[in-house]
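Lecture 7 notes: from sequence to structure.

We start with a single chain of 169 residues. Read the sequence below before looking at the structure.
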Amino acid sequence: IDLNELISTEIQVLKLRPKHQDKELTVIFEPTPKLPQIQADKEKVVRAVSNIIDNAFNYTTGGGTIEIKALISPDDDGQVLVSVKDDGVGIPEEFQDQLWERFVRHEDTALTLDVAGTGLGLPIVKELIKMHGGKIWFETETGVGTTFFITLPLKQPEYMTNISAVSGS
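Now the structure, written as tokens:
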């Protein structure tokens, strides 16, 4: 998977959604030259990355900024790091421990910003990233914004590629 292409495409798709068109957000993404492709299930990685970027669109108020990066991870050899930073509302401290739980979302914030959802997006994203041998975490400050980080290995373990070959995925 070419992450530069995937992210560029998802940004364009999300910008065209009616709920995002009127917000006048500044979205910054400069593809990283010579970023290696990753070995992964494209559909699942698209779903995960799209969800994180969509959340940045949803929880950033009009006139805000979203900055997305994809680069070779400075910490982990053989991994890429994707970050999605917004200057949105942030995640309240009392809710941060519940963020990865299914069917749980911060209703006050979601209702105030008119964000539809079931509370399944981030738990599913976490599982999809874990399935690929990656990690996901965030840094946030209420009223300042949130940055989500995803690491994904460039190559999947041999046993995973063998499973994909057998199952036809």
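The radius of gyration is 16 Å. Keep this in mind for problem set 3.
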